Amino acid sequence: MGKYANKAMEALATDLAAGLVRLRKGYVDNAEALLQILDTSTAYPYEFVVFRLTGFRGQRGGPPSESLPGSTLRRDLLALMLDICDSCDIRTGEYSEPAYSVEQVARKFRISTKTVQRWRRMGLPARRLVFPDEKRRLAFLETSLQSFVAGRERLVRRSMRFSQLTPAERGDIIRRARRMARFTSCCLSDVARRLARRTGRAVETIRYTIRNHDARHPDQAVFPYLLSPLDDQEKTAIYNSFIRGTSVALLAQQFHRTRSSIYRIVNEMRARQLLQRPITYIYNPQFDLPGAEEAILDVGVQPAGDRAGADKGHDAGAASHAEAPNDLPAYLRALYDVPLLAPSEEFDLFRRYNYLKCRADKLRSRIDLNSVRTSALKQIEAYLVQANVLKNRIVSANLRLVVSIAKKHLGGPQTLFELISDGNVSLLRAVEKFDYSRGNRFSTYASWAIMRNYARSVPKERYQLDRFATGNEEVLDIAAGLRVYDPNEVNLGELRESIDAVLARLTPMERMILTDHYGLADQGQAKTLEQLGQRLGVSKERVRQIEIQAMKKLRSILNPQEVDLTP
Known about the structure:
- The protein is mainly alpha-helical.
- Helices cover 62% and strands 3% of the residues.
- The protein is built from 29 helices and five strands.
- It is elongated.
- Mean pLDDT is 79; it is low at 301-320, 458-492 and 559-567.
């Protein structure tokens, strides 16, 4: 069905299209007859429209008192005619007068097919009929054309005058355009506007004439650079220049494009950057409920002074005014001036943060690079900016947590400020991965994430030993020994031979996984399961399974009485 301004007319079109086939042609004719007497400034009762179309009085699907504005009723009647025609096969031979296609109307009045479509939007009734060649096309009856032309003679004459160019006129336009393009820096739009003023023709007519000439004669094109689209490098250059402040007019002149083309390129590059930008969030089914935006984004956050009363058992006021340790520099002590978040406030911030990113991601999925809307880009960017503001609030309220944990890990190779910097990175990642709906406090999750990151700062060897403890510490001790034994005390050659003797009982894949994973190879660099999976062309889980299988084999054969692992 077509798009209707009035729901009652849409329902009526549905009923008529499902009615008796022998009556549908009459419904279409009656709709056009009603169009001829329609006054767009008058409102018509629904019952009157039904009577004019069907000949029956009374209600057919609409409320008795409903009134239909004439301005929208005309559009609805035009759509109704096409919908009824689509529901059955009405042939041109069923009419006693000629029926013309779009192309035939264009030739009859010496106008373009675009002008015919423009006439349709102005009220020219069209049917969709089956022509003698058995193809269904838009059709215009002779009486429909005469009636439309009679009321718009001036429009028709103007359309005929501007649409028809003689070969001499087209040649003159091309010569003038080539001269302007050669001796000035005018783009196609500028040339079209200047020639339109000088020739009295429409700007679109001039532009179409030049483009049509260039397409047919590429070797003699007036604007040859328009025949090939801009590549990605040129589009990137345009976008970078635009964001640095270069005017659109100057870019249009520099790249020989219209201003609208420059704007389209800028929007396209903005859309590409948004599509490449990672947007991660924790989804919640509440985000898709009706009225979710109002319920989530319009929730007010309690002031800091009211948090303690709202959240039992949480002394937010005391925590917000906690004193900073005396041994901290002044700029770290300033972190303690930022109030902590009450549980309810923390929950609300995380919910809004994830909802905004969810909305941005959904809008981004609808982006079409061939037709980018500026309003959609602005909305996505607004959502992301709001989400970033909320993220900064959460991070700022938890920065002192990083400081407190970092102080407990002093004593290693890293300074306090290096530990704080690493901890802040972990805090930022924790904000993105925290699931607020589980009811846990963010400080608990963030503390675990920060301390886990600090664990990685321990020498890699020890970290590997602790992480991959499997009950076969003999093999792991050997892996460590290859890099820490003193060559003056241990014969590494003999030790290597003993290890190779044990590993020789495994399959080649098992042996490769163990040696590379635990750093038993000559280079002594341990590889992760994921790296091994990529090398072997299998998943990380499959590598882990093979590793477990190899360890079971070693458990059965690794016997100190059989193999002497130490010299």
